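Ticket opened by: R.M.
Priority: normal
Category: complex prediction / small molecule

The reporter submitted a protein together with zinc ion and asked that the result be attached to this ticket for the collaborator who will pick it up next week. Submitted input follows.
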Amino acid sequence: MNPLPWTREMENEMTSLLELADNLSYTAIAERMSAKYEMEISKNACIGKARRMGIPQRNGKPHKPTGRPRKDLMVRIKVDAPIAPKIRRNQGPGVTLQQLDQNRECHWPLAAVEDKPPYVYCGKPAIDGGSWCHDHAKKAFSKVRA
Ligand SMILES: [Zn+2]
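Result attached by the on-call engineer:
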């Protein structure tokens, strides 16, 4: 249903009906308004309009302003999840020290000394009892020999 096209004249008419006839109910006002302006004006339409115009309620209390957010109804959401990069394994060469299985994986550092952390290590399966994988063990021993 479309809102009623309230004109200034209609507002004034309703205001005077409310002021002049104290005992006139909104139902009666709606009937008079409907008859005068030859349109269907419901009781609720009159009440709603009176409220929007700030006309005091019948018991003398002014209408409280509405539409303002109530702070007590607001919900405060606290977000304090730590923001940490997701470290995924098997992505790119090497693993970090934290990811390295020190007993079974190659400790060969892949990063250069001047690199910034996180330093990465080979991480391939270490050969029996050693600290390095097959390839790095060969490298290590050839260095020693050289
Ligand atoms: Zn290795």
